[in-house]
Amino acid sequence: MSEDRQTRRHPQNLQGVLQLAVEAGSAAEGPAPPEPMSEERKTWLREALTELCKGQMDEVEQMKQCLAVLCKEGSERERGGEEEREDDDEDDERETAFEMLSELCENLDNARDLMTLGGLELCVSQYLNHAQSGLRWRAAQLIASCAQNMPQLQFHLLSIGALPKLLQLTDSDPNPTVRVKALYAVSCLVREQEAGLQAFLSHDGFSVLMRGMQSENEKLRTKSAFLLLNLLMSHPEQKDTLVAMGMVQQLVSVLRTPHSPVHEHVLGALCCLVEDFPQGLNDCRNPALGLEELLRQRSKELQGKEESQEELDFCERLRVMCFSRQQSDDTGMDR
Protein backbone atom coordinates (compact mmCIF):
# COMPACT_ATOMS: atom_id res chain seq x y z
CA MET A 1 0.00 0.00 0.00
CA SER A 2 2.80 2.39 0.91
CA GLU A 3 4.41 1.57 -2.43
CA ASP A 4 1.21 2.58 -4.24
CA ARG A 5 1.20 5.90 -2.42
CA GLN A 6 4.78 6.60 -3.45
CA THR A 7 4.19 5.87 -7.12
CA ARG A 8 0.81 7.62 -7.35
CA ARG A 9 0.89 10.83 -9.39
CA HIS A 10 -1.52 13.64 -8.63
CA PRO A 11 -3.26 15.14 -11.66
CA GLN A 12 -2.09 18.64 -12.61
CA ASN A 13 -5.10 19.73 -14.69
CA LEU A 14 -8.66 18.82 -15.59
CA GLN A 15 -7.44 16.46 -18.30
CA GLY A 16 -5.43 14.64 -15.64
CA VAL A 17 -8.47 14.30 -13.39
CA LEU A 18 -10.49 12.75 -16.20
CA GLN A 19 -7.64 10.35 -16.99
CA LEU A 20 -7.43 9.36 -13.34
CA ALA A 21 -11.16 8.71 -13.30
CA VAL A 22 -10.92 6.50 -16.40
CA GLU A 23 -8.04 4.52 -14.91
CA ALA A 24 -9.90 4.06 -11.65
CA GLY A 25 -12.96 2.84 -13.49
CA SER A 26 -10.91 0.40 -15.57
CA ALA A 27 -9.22 -1.00 -12.48
CA ALA A 28 -12.45 -1.58 -10.61
CA GLU A 29 -13.56 -5.21 -10.31
CA GLY A 30 -17.13 -6.30 -10.80
CA PRO A 31 -20.17 -4.11 -11.62
CA ALA A 32 -20.45 -0.52 -10.41
CA PRO A 33 -22.11 -0.17 -6.98
CA PRO A 34 -25.84 0.41 -7.28
CA GLU A 35 -25.98 3.15 -4.63
CA PRO A 36 -25.63 6.79 -5.82
CA MET A 37 -22.57 8.86 -4.99
CA SER A 38 -22.65 10.10 -1.41
CA GLU A 39 -22.95 13.82 -0.67
CA GLU A 40 -19.55 13.70 0.97
CA ARG A 41 -18.03 12.22 -2.17
CA LYS A 42 -19.78 14.78 -4.36
CA THR A 43 -18.47 17.62 -2.21
CA TRP A 44 -14.92 16.28 -2.32
CA LEU A 45 -15.02 15.90 -6.11
CA ARG A 46 -16.51 19.38 -6.58
CA GLU A 47 -13.82 20.96 -4.42
CA ALA A 48 -11.05 19.04 -6.15
CA LEU A 49 -12.23 20.15 -9.58
CA THR A 50 -12.57 23.75 -8.38
CA GLU A 51 -9.00 23.76 -7.06
CA LEU A 52 -7.65 22.28 -10.27
CA CYS A 53 -9.51 24.78 -12.44
CA LYS A 54 -8.26 27.56 -10.19
CA GLY A 55 -4.72 26.27 -10.62
CA GLN A 56 -5.14 26.26 -14.40
CA MET A 57 -6.45 29.83 -14.26
CA ASP A 58 -3.48 30.82 -12.09
CA GLU A 59 -1.15 29.51 -14.78
CA VAL A 60 -2.95 31.52 -17.44
CA GLU A 61 -2.51 34.60 -15.26
CA GLN A 62 1.19 33.81 -14.92
CA MET A 63 1.47 33.61 -18.70
CA LYS A 64 -0.31 36.95 -19.06
CA GLN A 65 2.14 38.52 -16.63
CA CYS A 66 5.08 37.08 -18.57
CA LEU A 67 3.68 38.43 -21.82
CA ALA A 68 3.21 41.84 -20.21
CA VAL A 69 6.93 41.84 -19.42
CA LEU A 70 7.80 40.82 -22.97
CA CYS A 71 5.49 43.44 -24.47
CA LYS A 72 7.19 46.34 -22.70
CA GLU A 73 8.32 48.91 -25.21
CA GLY A 74 12.00 49.58 -24.62
CA SER A 75 13.37 53.03 -25.27
CA GLU A 76 16.30 53.47 -27.63
CA ARG A 77 19.34 51.92 -26.03
CA GLU A 78 22.19 54.25 -25.30
CA ARG A 79 24.88 52.25 -23.63
CA GLY A 80 26.42 53.88 -20.61
CA GLY A 81 26.03 54.44 -16.87
CA GLU A 82 22.65 53.94 -15.26
CA GLU A 83 20.86 53.35 -18.57
CA GLU A 84 23.09 50.36 -19.27
CA ARG A 85 22.27 48.81 -15.89
CA GLU A 86 18.55 49.38 -16.45
CA ASP A 87 18.76 47.76 -19.88
CA ASP A 88 20.57 44.77 -18.41
CA ASP A 89 17.92 44.41 -15.71
CA GLU A 90 15.20 44.56 -18.35
CA ASP A 91 16.89 41.83 -20.38
CA ASP A 92 17.21 39.65 -17.26
CA GLU A 93 13.51 40.15 -16.56
CA ARG A 94 12.58 39.15 -20.10
CA GLU A 95 14.82 36.08 -20.00
CA THR A 96 13.13 35.01 -16.77
CA ALA A 97 9.72 35.52 -18.41
CA PHE A 98 10.73 33.29 -21.34
CA GLU A 99 12.02 30.59 -19.02
CA MET A 100 8.78 30.60 -17.04
CA LEU A 101 6.71 30.41 -20.24
CA SER A 102 8.77 27.47 -21.52
CA GLU A 103 8.18 25.62 -18.29
CA LEU A 104 4.45 26.38 -18.25
CA CYS A 105 4.04 25.38 -21.91
CA GLU A 106 5.23 21.86 -21.26
CA ASN A 107 1.53 21.53 -20.43
CA LEU A 108 -0.29 21.27 -23.77
CA ASP A 109 -3.27 23.26 -22.51
CA ASN A 110 -0.98 26.14 -21.58
CA ALA A 111 0.76 26.01 -24.96
CA ARG A 112 -2.61 26.33 -26.64
CA ASP A 113 -3.54 29.22 -24.34
CA LEU A 114 -0.28 30.98 -25.18
CA MET A 115 -1.23 30.85 -28.84
CA THR A 116 -4.64 32.33 -28.04
CA LEU A 117 -3.00 35.10 -26.01
CA GLY A 118 -0.79 36.09 -28.94
CA GLY A 119 2.42 34.92 -27.35
CA LEU A 120 3.69 33.03 -30.38
CA GLU A 121 3.20 36.03 -32.68
CA LEU A 122 5.19 38.08 -30.21
CA CYS A 123 8.06 35.57 -30.30
CA VAL A 124 8.16 35.45 -34.08
CA SER A 125 7.69 39.16 -34.79
CA GLN A 126 9.86 40.72 -32.06
CA TYR A 127 12.18 38.23 -30.43
CA LEU A 128 13.57 35.90 -33.08
CA ASN A 129 15.44 38.90 -34.48
CA HIS A 130 16.10 40.65 -31.16
CA ALA A 131 19.49 42.28 -30.63
CA GLN A 132 20.13 40.22 -27.48
CA SER A 133 21.16 36.64 -28.24
CA GLY A 134 19.83 35.41 -24.87
CA LEU A 135 16.36 36.54 -25.91
CA ARG A 136 16.66 35.12 -29.43
CA TRP A 137 17.48 31.61 -28.29
CA ARG A 138 14.89 31.63 -25.53
CA ALA A 139 12.23 32.66 -28.05
CA ALA A 140 13.28 29.78 -30.32
CA GLN A 141 13.20 27.38 -27.38
CA LEU A 142 9.68 28.48 -26.44
CA ILE A 143 8.51 27.96 -30.02
CA ALA A 144 9.99 24.46 -29.97
CA SER A 145 8.31 23.64 -26.65
CA CYS A 146 4.92 24.70 -28.00
CA ALA A 147 5.28 23.05 -31.41
CA GLN A 148 6.21 19.55 -30.23
CA ASN A 149 3.48 17.07 -31.18
CA MET A 150 0.92 19.87 -31.50
CA PRO A 151 -0.37 20.07 -35.10
CA GLN A 152 -2.64 23.01 -34.31
CA LEU A 153 0.27 25.09 -33.05
CA GLN A 154 2.56 23.88 -35.83
CA PHE A 155 0.09 25.11 -38.47
CA HIS A 156 -0.26 28.41 -36.63
CA LEU A 157 3.51 28.94 -36.45
CA LEU A 158 3.90 28.08 -40.12
CA SER A 159 1.13 30.53 -41.03
CA ILE A 160 2.85 33.44 -39.25
CA GLY A 161 6.21 32.84 -40.94
CA ALA A 162 8.18 31.24 -38.13
CA LEU A 163 10.04 28.70 -40.28
CA PRO A 164 12.02 31.00 -42.62
CA LYS A 165 13.17 33.08 -39.65
CA LEU A 166 14.25 29.97 -37.76
CA LEU A 167 16.13 28.65 -40.79
CA GLN A 168 17.92 31.97 -41.15
CA LEU A 169 18.96 31.89 -37.49
CA THR A 170 20.15 28.29 -37.90
CA ASP A 171 22.17 29.23 -40.95
CA SER A 172 23.81 32.49 -39.99
CA ASP A 173 23.29 33.67 -36.42
CA PRO A 174 26.63 34.63 -34.82
CA ASN A 175 25.68 33.01 -31.51
CA PRO A 176 26.11 29.19 -31.43
CA THR A 177 23.35 28.64 -28.85
CA VAL A 178 20.86 30.55 -31.00
CA ARG A 179 21.71 28.37 -34.00
CA VAL A 180 21.20 25.13 -32.06
CA LYS A 181 17.92 26.24 -30.47
CA ALA A 182 16.61 27.52 -33.80
CA LEU A 183 17.38 24.18 -35.45
CA TYR A 184 15.55 22.42 -32.62
CA ALA A 185 12.49 24.57 -33.34
CA VAL A 186 12.81 23.82 -37.08
CA SER A 187 12.84 20.11 -36.26
CA CYS A 188 9.66 20.44 -34.20
CA LEU A 189 7.92 22.12 -37.15
CA VAL A 190 8.94 19.73 -39.95
CA ARG A 191 9.24 16.22 -38.48
CA GLU A 192 6.07 14.20 -39.07
CA GLN A 193 4.42 17.37 -40.41
CA GLU A 194 3.77 17.44 -44.16
CA ALA A 195 2.96 21.16 -44.34
CA GLY A 196 6.13 21.89 -42.40
CA LEU A 197 8.20 19.73 -44.74
CA GLN A 198 6.86 21.52 -47.80
CA ALA A 199 7.69 24.90 -46.26
CA PHE A 200 11.13 23.55 -45.35
CA LEU A 201 11.73 22.48 -48.96
CA SER A 202 10.50 25.78 -50.39
CA HIS A 203 13.05 27.64 -48.24
CA ASP A 204 15.94 25.35 -49.26
CA GLY A 205 16.08 23.74 -45.84
CA PHE A 206 18.33 20.87 -46.95
CA SER A 207 21.04 23.36 -47.90
CA VAL A 208 20.79 24.81 -44.39
CA LEU A 209 21.33 21.31 -42.96
CA MET A 210 24.26 20.74 -45.29
CA ARG A 211 25.95 23.91 -44.10
CA GLY A 212 25.09 23.04 -40.51
CA MET A 213 26.96 19.75 -40.84
CA GLN A 214 30.01 21.69 -42.03
CA SER A 215 29.90 24.10 -39.09
CA GLU A 216 32.54 24.23 -36.36
CA ASN A 217 29.70 24.05 -33.81
CA GLU A 218 29.68 20.37 -32.81
CA LYS A 219 26.11 20.41 -31.49
CA LEU A 220 24.85 22.04 -34.65
CA ARG A 221 26.73 19.51 -36.81
CA THR A 222 25.28 16.56 -34.92
CA LYS A 223 21.72 17.87 -34.79
CA SER A 224 21.77 18.84 -38.48
CA ALA A 225 22.87 15.33 -39.45
CA PHE A 226 20.30 13.76 -37.14
CA LEU A 227 17.46 15.80 -38.68
CA LEU A 228 18.66 14.92 -42.19
CA LEU A 229 18.65 11.22 -41.29
CA ASN A 230 15.18 11.48 -39.74
CA LEU A 231 13.74 13.25 -42.79
CA LEU A 232 15.28 10.70 -45.15
CA MET A 233 13.81 7.81 -43.18
CA SER A 234 10.37 9.46 -43.10
CA HIS A 235 10.45 10.82 -46.66
CA PRO A 236 12.54 8.57 -48.96
CA GLU A 237 11.02 10.39 -51.92
CA GLN A 238 13.45 13.23 -51.16
CA LYS A 239 16.49 11.13 -52.17
CA ASP A 240 16.45 12.47 -55.71
CA THR A 241 16.53 16.09 -54.51
CA LEU A 242 19.39 15.41 -52.11
CA VAL A 243 21.55 13.41 -54.54
CA ALA A 244 21.02 16.07 -57.24
CA MET A 245 22.35 18.76 -54.90
CA GLY A 246 25.53 16.77 -54.22
CA MET A 247 24.64 15.55 -50.75
CA VAL A 248 26.58 12.28 -51.10
CA GLN A 249 29.84 14.12 -51.77
CA GLN A 250 29.18 16.53 -48.91
CA LEU A 251 28.45 13.72 -46.46
CA VAL A 252 31.62 11.86 -47.39
CA SER A 253 33.62 15.05 -46.82
CA VAL A 254 32.10 15.25 -43.32
CA LEU A 255 33.20 11.65 -42.69
CA ARG A 256 36.78 12.74 -43.38
CA THR A 257 36.75 15.26 -40.52
CA PRO A 258 38.09 14.18 -37.09
CA HIS A 259 35.86 11.50 -35.61
CA SER A 260 32.82 12.77 -33.68
CA PRO A 261 29.19 11.79 -32.89
CA VAL A 262 28.00 13.38 -36.14
CA HIS A 263 29.56 10.51 -38.13
CA GLU A 264 26.97 7.99 -36.95
CA HIS A 265 24.12 10.05 -38.41
CA VAL A 266 26.09 10.80 -41.58
CA LEU A 267 26.65 7.09 -42.22
CA GLY A 268 22.95 6.45 -41.58
CA ALA A 269 22.02 9.14 -44.09
CA LEU A 270 24.35 7.65 -46.70
CA CYS A 271 22.73 4.24 -46.18
CA CYS A 272 19.34 5.83 -46.86
CA LEU A 273 20.60 7.55 -50.03
CA VAL A 274 22.02 4.27 -51.36
CA GLU A 275 19.19 1.88 -50.54
CA ASP A 276 16.97 1.18 -53.58
CA PHE A 277 18.34 4.29 -55.30
CA PRO A 278 20.81 3.66 -58.15
CA GLN A 279 21.99 7.27 -58.49
CA GLY A 280 22.97 7.45 -54.83
CA LEU A 281 24.72 4.10 -55.17
CA ASN A 282 26.68 5.29 -58.22
CA ASP A 283 27.76 8.46 -56.43
CA CYS A 284 29.08 6.45 -53.48
CA ARG A 285 30.96 4.10 -55.82
CA ASN A 286 32.74 6.96 -57.57
CA PRO A 287 36.47 6.13 -57.15
CA ALA A 288 37.27 9.82 -56.72
CA LEU A 289 35.52 9.77 -53.34
CA GLY A 290 37.66 6.95 -51.99
CA LEU A 291 34.71 5.82 -49.88
CA GLU A 292 35.52 2.11 -49.94
CA GLU A 293 38.89 2.54 -48.25
CA LEU A 294 37.46 5.11 -45.85
CA LEU A 295 34.76 2.66 -44.72
CA ARG A 296 37.25 -0.18 -44.38
CA GLN A 297 39.49 1.94 -42.16
CA ARG A 298 36.57 3.23 -40.11
CA SER A 299 35.32 -0.31 -39.47
CA LYS A 300 38.73 -1.27 -38.08
CA GLU A 301 38.75 1.77 -35.78
CA LEU A 302 35.28 1.01 -34.41
CA GLN A 303 35.76 -2.70 -33.77
CA GLY A 304 35.35 -3.62 -30.11
CA LYS A 305 33.94 -0.22 -29.08
CA GLU A 306 30.56 -0.93 -27.54
CA GLU A 307 29.56 2.73 -27.51
CA SER A 308 30.09 2.90 -31.30
CA GLN A 309 28.13 -0.23 -32.22
CA GLU A 310 25.38 1.59 -34.11
CA GLU A 311 27.89 3.59 -36.10
CA LEU A 312 29.76 0.36 -36.91
CA ASP A 313 26.52 -1.25 -38.06
CA PHE A 314 25.84 1.65 -40.44
CA CYS A 315 29.44 1.48 -41.69
CA GLU A 316 29.29 -2.24 -42.43
CA ARG A 317 25.86 -1.96 -44.01
CA LEU A 318 27.06 0.81 -46.32
CA ARG A 319 30.12 -1.23 -47.32
CA VAL A 320 27.97 -4.22 -48.20
CA MET A 321 25.45 -2.18 -50.20
CA CYS A 322 28.06 -0.22 -52.12
CA PHE A 323 31.02 -2.49 -52.64
CA SER A 324 30.18 -6.13 -51.89
CA ARG A 325 27.42 -5.95 -54.46
CA GLN A 326 29.74 -4.18 -56.89
CA GLN A 327 32.25 -7.01 -56.62
CA SER A 328 29.47 -9.53 -57.24
CA ASP A 329 28.30 -7.56 -60.26
CA ASP A 330 31.86 -7.36 -61.64
CA THR A 331 32.35 -11.11 -61.16
CA GLY A 332 29.10 -11.82 -62.98
CA MET A 333 30.17 -9.63 -65.89
CA ASP A 334 33.52 -11.46 -66.13
CA ARG A 335 31.73 -14.76 -66.43
General description of the model:
- The chain has helices at residues 2-7, 14-27, 39-70, 81-104, 108-116, 119-127, 133-147, 151-159, 162-172, 176-190, 194-202, 205-213, 218-234, 239-244, 247-255, 262-274, 278-285, 291-302, 309-334.
- The protein is mostly helical.
- Among the domains are: 94-203, Alpha Horseshoe (Leucine-rich Repeat Variant), CATH 1.25.10.10; 238-324.
- Helix 17 crosses helix 19 (309-334).
- The protein is elongated.
- Mean pLDDT is 84; it is low at 1-10, 25-29, 73-85 and 330-335.
- Residues 14-114 form the Nucleotide exchange factor Fes1 domain.
- Residues 75-94 are annotated as: Disordered.
- Interacts with the ATP-binding domain of HSPA1A. Detected in a ternary complex containing STUB1, HSPA1A and HSPBP1. Interacts with PGLYRP1; this interaction blocks the cytotoxic activity of the PGLYRP1-HSPA1A complex.
- Residues 83-94 have a biased composition (Acidic residues).
- Keywords: Phosphoprotein, Repeat.
- CATH top level of the domain at 94-203 is Mainly Alpha
Structural category is mainly alpha
Shape: elongated
Q: Estimate what percentage of residues fall within beta strands.
A: under 5%
Q: What's the total count of β strands?
A: 0
Q: Which spans of ≥5 residues are poorly predicted at pLDDT below 50?
A: 1-10, 25-29, 73-85, 330-335
> Tally the helices: what do you get?
19
Reported for the largest beta sheet, the result is: none
Gap from first CA to last CA? 75 Å
User: In the CATH classification, which architecture of the domain at 94-203 applies?
Assistant: Alpha Horseshoe
So, the CATH homologous superfamily of the domain at 94-203? Answer: Leucine-rich Repeat Variant
The average pLDDT value, as a whole number, equals 84
Q: CATH topology of the domain at 94-203, what is it called?
A: Leucine-rich Repeat Variant
State the helicity in percent bands: over 70%
What is the element string, with H for helices and E for strands? HHHHHHHHHHHHHHHHHHH
- CA-atom Rg in angstroms: 26 Å
